[in-house]
Amino acid sequence: MSRISAAVLVSGIIVFGVIIAFELAVAPRTADPLNHAPLTLRDTGAVNAVSAILFDYRALDTLGEATVILMTATVVAFLTPRAKASMLAVRLSSIVLYGVVLLLPFITILGIAVMAHGHVSPGGGFTGGVIVATSTVFYAVVYSVGGQQSYVIAPAANKLIENTAMTAFIGVGLLGLGLAGSFLANAQTGIPLGTPGELLSAGTIPMLNLISGVKVGVGLGIIVMSLFLE
Amino acid sequence: MLEAAVVLLCLFLVGVSLYTVNSSSVFAAIIAMGVFSIILTVLFVILKAPDVAMTEAVIGAGLTTAFFVIALDKTRDTDGGHR
User: Chain B partners of A24 at a C-beta cutoff of 8 Å?
Assistant: First the structure.
């Protein structure tokens, strides 16, 4: 092991030891971090406080994130040369091939389920979207890149879906603006918050969850496909 | 008991990252980064942050490793034996 990493290791362990010693000996026990959940439940009706923050209190930031993904996908898709670049031969043994083929539907369903239950269980729009994007990777690896059959959704439709999802996100925001006078408003718009824990509860949060999930899934799908073809 | 698990996992993290830095083959380093993400996911679950754990698992172990493997696969074997 080179001298530098030895030094890094030793200094790391010393710093780490000091922190742990301080933590165990001196630092007071802070209150349980999850005690603010009832507040978000009252405001937004979402059981999952993280989703409440992501899609209600700080929905504008999530809109910004969605724009970043849209921009990245556009730039990467733009840089992909039209000529089909060669992907080094990917020889999959039949076990892997059929394993992945059997796995595909379950991954997509898992992604959709995680997206749909964003306001109730952990995970949510983004995580579900990334799971769906992972199935695009599987699809491309199994069905050899570039062939017309290797796309879960044709690239043109991919881009269309992503753009409509983006406008839908802004649409929900404008809906909030129209009904309640503030962009991306949720509870104030009078949309029923429903009984917490049910699928159709927490106003616009499930809508935003699904929209951003579709957007992330398709956007990352474009990025992955461009990376394959590049 | 839980603190012991957290301390143990953190030391394991340091070990895996040092292995990633010092490993000779690039492919092994990529897989080690995937392992790093998995351990991080377990740590997040212990620290009662399920959302972050799921995101880290899906992106860290899933997509990032896939991207790196694709990128590695596309680089020509020019500097001799980088695999």
Answer: 3
pLDDT band at residue A211 using 50, 70 and 90 as cut-offs? confident
Tokens of A139: 């699809």
Q: How far is CA A175 from CA A116, A139, A169, A186, B26, in A?
A: 21, 37, 10, 9, 50
A55 contacts chain B (CB < 8 A) = no
Given a contact cutoff of 8 angstroms between Cβ atoms, the answer to whether B10 and B44 are in contact is no
Whether chain B has a CB inside 8 Å of the CB on A53: the answer is no
Phi, psi of A153 (to 5 degrees): -130, 140
Q: Measured between alpha carbons, how far is A122 from A142 in angstroms, rounded to an integer?
A: 30
Q: What percent of chain A has pLDDT over 90?
A: 0
Q: Please answer yes or no on whether A122 and B3 come within 8 Å at the CB atom.
A: no
The count of other CB atoms within 10 Å of the CB of residue A128 is 28
What's the start-to-end Cα distance of chain B, in Å? 41
**A2 touching B (Cβ < 8 Å):** yes
Give yes or no for residue A170 having a pLDDT over 90. no
Q: Mean of the pLDDT values across residues A122-146? A: 77
Residue A49's pLDDT is 78
How high does pLDDT run on average in chain A?
A: 76
| ipTM given for this complex | 0.75
Instruction: Report the alpha-carbon distance of residue B18 to residue B23 in Å, rounded.
Output: 8
